[in-house]
Input
Amino acid sequence: MHNLYTITFSPTGISQLAADRIAEAFETKPVPIDLCQEVSGEIQIEPDSVCILSAPCYGGRIPETAVERFSHIRGNGAAAIVCVTYGNRAYEDALLELADCAKTAGCRVIAGCAAVGEHNIMHIYGTGRPDASDLDELHQFAVRAARKIDAGLTEEPVLPGNRPYKERHVSTMKILTDENTCKSCGLCAAKCPVRAISDDGRRVDETLCIGCMRCIKICPEKCRKIPEELVSGLIQRVGKACEGRKANEFYL
Output
């Protein structure tokens, strides 16, 4: 194996956590590629490398921003493990779409998984996940994937999902900022994957915002939030589908 890469679009850190856990099954320290940062030009991967591609599921799809940034990868035949994280509802076509992104980039998909994480808006679902049990399952999966690669097996697993993918539903996400506690540190603006936040952190361009919740997650003053009525409405609409402990799913 030439190199090990974690190639992630992980606004709230859950997809990165899953990728890092998978990477631990390999003896090589991974080279991180953070697609939450803007990408210009091509990102070349050496042949005989292993890539772990990870991204969240938004409404059964991979975020459009992630799809565009994965397109800058040039895999050159590298083996790929694809991992979608989802908020204890369903991942629908997202894992298949991520695998297609990997193949379009020139990677060979040899394993895939869907890992449950805490829902990034309705935090009452999947609370605290991935937990210790989830991380252990991810590690065991990664060990099997590593053995498959070491054995020179290249068969692509059959992944669930449909082509064409389900229609992408993009909704405007309103982010509220508490003017009294915001210190205009600019962290949210600097870390926003799509530059939708003003430099002082007090205004959001809703035409650019992808609802990734990164600004809420990283705000040191905890002064940003989704309106409570929006969260309540979302729970009423889809909460039933999020009940119970959903399982992680693995494909080799």
Notes: The radius of gyration is 18 Å. Residues 132-150 form the longest helix (19 residues). The longest strand covers residues 108-116.
